[in-house]
Structures are given as C-alpha cells and as structure tokens.
Amino acid sequence: MKKLINLAMAAIFLCGTSVFTSCTTTDNPAQSGINLSEMIIGKWITTNIEGKNMQTNDKIVFTFVSPTKAYLSASYTTDLGSGEQWIDKREIDVVISGDTITLTTRTDEHTIVVEKLIVQNITSSKLSTLHDVSIYYDGKVIASGKGTPLRFAKITTDYSQDIIGLWECTALTGTETYNDADSRLEFFADGTYKYWHKNTAGEWEAVINREFQNYFVDGTLLGTRWKNTGEEELREWWEIASLANGQMVWTALREKTDDTTVQQEMRWKKIE
Predict the structure, then answer these.
(1) Tell me: domain 2-155, CATH 3.20.20.70, correct?
(2) Would you list the domain boundaries of the chain?
(3) In this predicted structure, what is the pLDDT of residue 236?
(4) Which of 8, 26, 215, 269 is deepest in the core (most CB within 10 A)?
C-alpha cells in the first residue's frame, strides 16, 4: 500500500517517472445537475486515496480561484528516486468540462503534467474523484495512470497570516518527531522560521547551525523544511487544527515502521 500511495503522490506532485496501472472503484457515479465551476471554488485538501486515510506528509492543497486557474501547495519527498517537491502555491491552468476538471502544469521546458479529476460527488465540504494523470516529456507520454480514487475536504480557514510570530510548545501527544516538546518556533512573513531550544542553563537560544529553515501554510496545511550544516535536508508536516486567542493546536497522522498509524498532537502558546 505504501508503494501504491507513493506512486500516486509522485504523479500528483508532478515528479513521477513510473508507469501506472488502472484501478477499479466502487465510488458513486458522477452527480448530475450541479454547477461544478461554482462549487469547486475554494481550497481543497487531499484526505483519502484508494480508500485509505492519507498521512499528513502526503497531503496537498488545491486552491481554485476561478474555473480556469488554481494553485497547488505541497511538500513531498519519495523513496522511489523521483525527487523532492517544495511547492508553495504553484499556478495551474484549469479546464472544466462536464464532470471533469483538467489541470495542466508545465514544470520545466520539457515536462508537462496533465491531471484529470473526474468528479464522482461534490458537496459544500467534500469532493470525491477519480484521478487520471499523464506526464509528457518533449511531447511524449512517459508515465500515465487512470482511475485512482482520490478524495478531498474543503478548507474554510487559512492560517498563513495568523501563524506569524513566536510560539512555545506546551504539550506533545504521541511519538516525538523532529519538533519535540521543548521547543519554540518563530515564523516570519517571508516563509522562513527560526528554531529555539533551551540550553544547559535553561535559557532559550536560537539554533544557528542551519543553512536554511523554510515553511509554508496553505489553509490548514503546514510544511517545514530545514538543513543543518553538513547534514541531509529534513522535513516535517502538520495540520493546524485550531489557532485562536494565542493558542494553537497541530495534529498529524503518521505511519510507523510496522505500517500501522499513530495520531500526534502538539499544543502551542504565543509568546508576545
């Protein structure tokens, strides 16, 4: 299952080079009598693929601003050798015809990715589709896939501005990842952030051995990446469950080494 999800996500993130096989589905047939051009407007986050809940680090956000234009945000790494993606609101051309949303992106001078979201069901809060993809290199198809069930939830809040500032962790539930329970994070408006930790004297100090520290927030999805001097780049993903009155809660669904999943939660307070 992990490999199947990686393959599908590699296509969605515009970096796949493997050939995909067709999938079958038992999703409901496409709705009739809906105005898809109106209902699709807004932010949508992926929630489910092939009937399985998606891990937080696999999630992406599509923002449809009109029936002809959308933006994609994603932070993705893959163990299949197809590279890494750090995409903060990349523009996508959109064509809507009947129940099909066609998304076209040119990733470089050689490569064009054409995705089709064939809508099976859409409401004000949920979207169920079949996902087709074709990847073209110099006009030739180098990878394709058809019929992967992919579901989305609509995002009605955007925390990209509210997160700016200095935050201190107050609680962590679940397995610690790179962000532990003894940390502060300071988010800046330019898409960079600073990591603070307590020294042996119990005083807060900023970590200074990093070559870069970047983040994006699109709706509720938070992606971070950083690189310590002389080490490999690292990433961590969260969903912002709530942010109000100087309090913030992050959640994440992670996969463990035995292929089971664990739910994590981090709580933060804003430092004025």
Answers:
(1) no
(2) 2-155, 165-271
(3) 93
(4) 8
Structure tokens given for 212? 């870069």
What residues does 117 pair with on adjacent strands?
Answer: 101, 131
Each residue's pLDDT tens digit, 118-155: 999 999 999 999 999 999 999 999 999 999 999 999 99
Q: Token pair for residue 33?
A: 């009598």
Q: What are phi and psi of 53, to 5 degrees?
A: -60, 135
Ramachandran angles phi, psi of 93, nearest 5°: -80, 140
User: In 10 A of CB 168, how many CB atoms?
Assistant: 16
CATH number belonging to domain 165-271: 2.40.128.280
pLDDT in tens, 178-200: 877 789 999 999 999 999 999 88
- SS3 for the chain is CHHHHHHHHHHHCCCCCCCCCCCCCCCCCCCCCCCHHHHCCEEEEEEEECCEECCHHHCEEEEEEECCEEEEEEEEECCCCCCEEEEEEEEEEEEEECCEEEEEEECCCCEEEEEEEEEEEECCCEEEEEEEEEEEECCEEEEEEEEEEEEEEEECCCCCCCCCEEEEEEEEECCCCCCCCCCEEEECCCCEEEEEEECCCCCEEECCCEEEEEEEEECCEEEEEEEECCCCEEEEEEEEEEEECCEEEEEEEEECCCCCEEEEEEEEEEEC
Same fold, 2-155 and 165-271: yes
The dihedral of CA 39, 43, 46, 48: what is its sign? Answer: negative
Neighbours of 240 (CB within 10 A): 21
Tell me if residue 272 falls in helix, strand or coil.
coil
2-36 pLDDT, tens digit each = 433 444 445 554 333 333 434 444 444 455 668 99
